[in-house]
Amino acid sequence: MERGGANAQTERKLDDVNRKLGILHDRLRKDRVSAMIAGGLHQMAAAIQAYDYHDGLRIYNQLVSTGNFSEISAFMLGLKVLIQVANQLKV
Q: What pTM does this model have?
């Protein structure tokens, strides 16, 4: 039973991540992301593609601490959760 609960919790987290990634996608498509954030997102993507989740979270933290809250608040937590889940699942 516990395992099913964990799977359901992970599924809920990933549903929320999907929603937040949709927001990010819309903002990128409409060119509503600053160059600094876009550059940081590219760096995060490169780290994740290399399975370097620690560096991905480091870049995430840097963006959150230096970025404009109103620009990033709708999607950044989704990216953090995605990195954390990928690291936990070793994917």
A: 0.85
